[in-house]
Design goal:
This protein is mainly alpha-helical. The chain has 14 helices and two strands. A two-stranded antiparallel sheet has the order 1-2. β1 and β2 form a beta hairpin. α4 runs parallel beside α6 and α12 crosses α13. The protein is globular.
């Protein structure tokens, strides 16, 4: 039994390198999408110091808004196609901007300087509000993502390598490119701009930020809008791989082990943590799944995160907090 668990999977990797490359590629794509989900959590946490439980439903709500507006435009006589898709995308972006203003005005502004647990519980309320609003407006049935109308590619490339063929889905390649550009842009914005520096000041202390003239209202709107755009991109990419439904918010919970690995305040950490979880899941599912059970993909990420917690609780890129008494 120990041979099958500790040695045989590595023998299989060496015997069929093309399957190993295929598994690594699928894990890389999944890891990039996990990193995109985690990025939305990181943005909110950096601005408020609070874990935004509503990020998962924001992914679903943004994707449902895009598809719902597209269907509404079609029913109003706008021909289906790229024009209607990008009109729906523009409306979805405006909706996420409106949500950012509403969250700042209704939820965050009254809770300035309140304990973090209060803000955390407020994100629970926001979660169930968006679930109810989404079901009321768009219904509870799964919907097809309009990936083709948005110009996202379909099909695959079959490349001969490693003694066999590796299939690369075109939508996966597009996802990796789009996520890479988004992460680079957000990283530059929050590291090199005045608003980015103000964001870090707000994360350190609301009172100190207010004392030097930083507008909490402006920072929170910018950050929640950025998190909304990330949620919309996440919903498009995950929806294109399956479909748009409320079950997508369960996938967002995979951001927890990603954040534990990378650190709650680190954008590079979200990327590295996502890749570790994505690749680790696929390798575990393909090589160890038949031995440990087909449900390994549902718990392996949390096991990896637990192992990291034992040795580095702040994550790979997290900051050590030293309190002097």
């Amino acid at each position: 039994m120990l041979y099958k668990i500790l040695i045989d999977p590595f023998v299989q990797m060496g015997a069929a390198p093309d399957l190993l490359v295929q598994t690594l590629w699928e894990g890389l794509v999944g890891g990039v999408l996990y990193a995109l989900i985690a990025l939305g959590f990181v943005l909110i946490f950096k601005a408020s110091g609070v874990f935004n439980f509503a990020q998962g439903i924001m992914v679903v709500f943004a994707a449902l808004t895009l598809v719902g507006v597209y269907e509404a435009l079609s029913s109003w006589g706008v021909p289906r196609g790229m024009l209607a898709a990008y009109l729906a995308l523009a409306v979805a972006i405006l909706v996420m901007l409106g949500l950012a203003f509403a969250v700042e005005r209704v939820m965050l502004r009254p809770l300035v300087n309140q304990p973090d647990i209060i803000l955390f519980m407020a994100t629970f309320g926001l979660t169930y509000f968006l679930i109810g609003l989404g079901e009321l407006v768009f219904g509870g049935n799964p919907k097809r993502m309009i990936a083709g109308d948005l110009g996202l590619p379909s099909g695959s490339y079959d490349i001969k390598m490693a003694g066999g063929f590796v299939s690369l889905q075109k939508i996966d390649i597009a996802a990796v490119i789009i996520v890479s550009v988004m992460v680079a842009g957000l990283g530059f914005f929050f590291q090199r701009t005045r608003i980015g520096r103000a964001l870090r000041a707000v994360a350190d202390s609301h009172k100190a930020a207010l004392s030097v003239g930083i507008s909490l209202e402006q920072i929170w709107v910018v950050v929640w809008f950025a998190a909304g755009i990330v949620a919309l991109a996440t919903g498009i990419m995950w929806g294109a791989r399956s479909e748009v439904s409320f079950s997508l918010q369960i996938i967002a919970l995979k951001a927890l082990p990603v954040l534990i690995l990378g650190g709650f305040t680190s954008i590079p950490g979200a990327i590295v943590g996502g890749l570790i979880i994505g690749i680790g899941e696929k390798l575990g599912e393909f090589y160890w799944g038949p031995l440990l059970g087909s449900g390994i993909e549902s718990w392996l990420a949390y096991f990896i995160a637990l192992a990291f917690l034992l040795f580095r609780p702040q994550g790979l890129f997290g900051e050590k907090i030293i309190e002097r008494i």
